[in-house]
Structures are given as structure tokens and as C-alpha cells.
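Morning - pyridoxal-5'-phosphate inputs below, output right after.
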Amino acid sequence: MNHQFHPDTQAIRLQTERTTHKEHSVPLFMTSSFTFDTAEAMAAAFTGEDNSLIYSRYGNPNTDELIEKICQLEGAEAGFAVSTGMAAVFTSIAPFVGRGDHIVASRAVFGSTHQILSNILPKWGITFTYVDPEDISKWEAAIRPNTKMIILETPSNPGLTIIDIERVNHLAKKYNLILNVDNCFATPVLQQPIQWGANLVTHSATKYMDGQGRALGGIILGDKKYIDEIAQFCRHTGPSLSPFNAWLISKSIETLSLRMERHCSSALQLAQELERNNQITKVLYPYLPSHPQHDIARKQMSAGGGIVTFELKGGLEQGRKFLNNIKMCSLTSNLGDSRTIVTHPASTTHSKLSEEERLSVGITDGLVRISVGLEHISDILWDVLGAIPSH
Ligand SMILES: Cc1ncc(COP(=O)(O)O)c(C=O)c1O
């Protein structure tokens, strides 16, 4: 059979080899280790002469299946699954830097990525320079002889800044740097950074990949030579994904493409409605023509994603009122769920930052973030538009 299946089909049909029971749905391989018939077979597994499974910290049929599916969607050579999105971000950096090395990073990275760069890596003598995500022309000046990696997130959380991956890749290749992209907001269904030159791609599988707010998970994908190093690093440091979470998320990947279609179409409708509302000063959604990097979003994303942010007139106070007026949507800090989630970063997730720090990553006092869920769009519009305070 030489038919090449579409990645969406692979995400449904790729499956761990059936057991002797010929089950249809994939079983859960809830086992810490795997057995061998002979001493020789066990020795061969440990020397790496064959690919037999040894211990679930190194690999497990459920995690292997999940990795294979996401590799197909991302167009990646290899991957490794870990326990959270932050474990993915950390293990995509740590094996490649040491004392005296330097990282260039977009300023608009997730808060915990910021903590890794500014509080954890400096303890080991690794420094970083932030660059403006909206002005790539200035990034070259930040590169030093000891720079090893460029890190970026697009679209960014929560500011929805879009960075031209292809342009940054030219810079990465010119200086022989590893390009590391957090693709959590877009998912591999909407954007494949590897296609634009990225060496490593990370995901919080906790978000759209699980898609139902149940399980934490993370995955790193990319060039085999880098993933092999990450796998060795994880084998000894131990952040591997549990078989149960891998089984759950792998099942969810079967519907990722379908779910993203609905997340995106509802988010676009909501963004368009919000743009018409006179209590709102600004709406950000990558596929709205008014988005500052709309052209880049059109180039590298096949749809605008499931997150909409907007700016309420009246700042902090109106943000709080808005949250208190919400009737159906959830007030919680997750995103990428089947249920619509509303957050007000200035009074919650980012309340510990100074106003200046918040503003430098695009978080104004009146900014509201909506992770648009899979409920009927009429109900999402009713709840969100109805909660906007009139003054
Ligand atoms: C862009 C981005 N990267 C990484 C993470 C971390 O993921 P996790 O919560 O699974 O560790 C998040 C979580 O919100 C995120 O939004």
C-alpha cells in the first residue's frame, strides 16, 4: 500500500500494535517496566542494540503512540513526551546550554518560561537577552558569540503577538543557533514551525491536545539529533509523561483537528462581534485584519486559533465587573478547553508583576482573555457580550 495518509487521518489511525486480544481501542499500558525472555535479550535492550521497551521513564507504548501522532501533525522527525508544558520548555533548553552560554528570547514568553530564563538558568551561569517580538530587525544586535539558542512563542500568551518564524529562522541559520518555538496556542493543526525552519517545537499538551481540562502533559518535537539529546536528559532527570496521561491525550488527538475548526470559527465570530462593541477599545485576534501582525498570521497559520483578547474601557475595575457578570463561562486559569474560559490577567495571573512589567508584555489593566470553547456560539456570544459593563 503506497497511499500517503493525511496527518489528520494519521492522528486517528496511528495506533500501538494490537495485543493478542485484537482490541479496537488502544489499551492503557499501566506498567513501570517491561520484561525480557533471556539475559541476552535484556542485555541487548540496555546496550541499545534493539529498541525494546525497558522502563516507562524511557518510553512506553502509550507515550510512543502519542509522540508518533504529533510528529505526523508537526512534520517532525522525532519527539519526546513529558509531564507538563513547562517540563517541555525546560527540557528543550537545558541539554543545550551550559555555564557561559547565552540565549536570545522574545520578551513575550509565557510567565514560567520567563522564570526559567530570569531566575533558574542564571544560577548556572546562563544568561539571556530579551528582544522585542514586534521588531525582528533588532534581534540580530542581541546575538553574541556565546549565544546558543533563540526562543520564541507565537501566538504569545496572553498578548497574541505573532512572530514571523521564517524571518527569525534566517537569523538562527546565519549564526548557527537552535531555533526553539512554543507552538502551544496554534497547535500543530494550525501552524507547523518546523516547516519554517524551527529545530525544536514545544507544546503544553494540557491545553488543546487534551482539550477537556483533564490532564497535564507536554511534548518536544524536532530534529532527531536534538530530540535524542533531550531523551537522554529526560531518561536521567525523570520528567517523563505518565502512561495514563499519554493514553488520555492520544485519544483526544483523534479529534484535535475537528475541535480546532470549531474553536477557530467561534473565536473569529466572537472577535468580530467584540470589535463592534463601543465599551471595548481594542480587540486582538490573529485573523482580524486589524491585528498588527495579521499578514504574518495569514502566512504561517491556517486559522486564527481559539483565543481572543480585548481591552475594556475602564481598566482593572471594569475587568473585575466583567468577570463577576459572567454566567456560563468558567473563571479559571486554563485554556484550550471544550468549555469557554474567561480570565483577567491584570487582577489574577499577572497581578504580582508591576504595571510597567505587565505593559512590556502587552498586558494592560483592562485586558480580558477568552479561550473560546466548543459550546454553541449563540451562548458564548450571549454570555460574553452580556457581561460587558456599560460604564
Ligand atoms: C504558551 C504556553 N507555554 C507553556 C505553558 C505551560 O504548560 P503547562 O501548564 O502544561 O506546564 C503554557 C500554559 O499555560 C502556555 O500557555
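Note: The longest strand covers residues 147-153.

O.
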